[in-house]
């Protein structure tokens, strides 16, 4: 059965549902949770340097402002992880978390490998077409490269309506 469940958490709305599914699985199986947040420039609120501030024209103030935004961004992510870990702990689930920067899909697979995860639970934001090609699909990559089973939580509100034939 599942003893170690790795949960991919980001700032999207689907993450709440992903966490709820993971908590349900962990409660049912007695598994430990590892909440993973990978800070990526693919997220909408990822701090960006202003368009006018190209290297080598960065001035000290621009760099300071960016560093402040970056630190606040990381801090908000840790608060999200801390709150989720606290909820899981209160439910009797042994939980740890980690935050890092980089490629979400590769980082999730690497942590799953080193942590010996039995299951990875990630969300699917419903990107299709050009957006999926440009931004990539974390869930697709993880499904094909993970060292263990993967459960993808879909946002049913983003799915196209199903046609019914009578």
TrEMBL record:
Signal peptide per UniProt: none
Pfam families, per database record: Usp (PF00582)
Checking InterPro entries in the record gives: Rossmann-like_a/b/a_fold, Universal_stress_UspA, UspA
Q: Which Gene3D superfamilies match?
A: HUPs
Start and end of every UspA domain? 1-154
UniProt similarity note = Belongs to the universal stress protein A family.
Q: What is this protein called?
A: UspA domain-containing protein
Specify the species.
Stanieria cyanosphaera (strain ATCC 29371 / PCC 7437)
């Amino acid at each position: 059965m599942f003893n170690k469940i790795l949960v991919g958490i980001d700032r999207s709305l689907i993450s709440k549902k992903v966490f709820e599914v993971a908590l349900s699985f962990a409660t049912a199986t007695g598994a430990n949770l590892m909440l993973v947040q990978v800070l990526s420039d693919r997220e909408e609120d990822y701090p960006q340097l202003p368009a006018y501030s190209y290297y080598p024209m960065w001035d000290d103030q621009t760099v300071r402002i960016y560093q402040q935004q970056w630190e606040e961004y990381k801090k908000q992510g840790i608060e999200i992880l801390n709150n989720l870990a606290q909820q899981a702990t209160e439910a009797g689930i042994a939980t740890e978390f980690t935050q890092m920067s980089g490629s979400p899909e590769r980082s999730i697979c690497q942590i799953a490998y080193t942590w010996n995860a039995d299951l990875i639970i990630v969300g699917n934001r419903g990107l299709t077409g050009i957006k999926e090609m440009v931004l990539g699909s974390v869930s697709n990559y993880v499904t094909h490269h993970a060292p263990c089973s993967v459960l993808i939580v879909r946002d049913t509100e983003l799915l196209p309506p199903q046609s019914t034939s009578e």
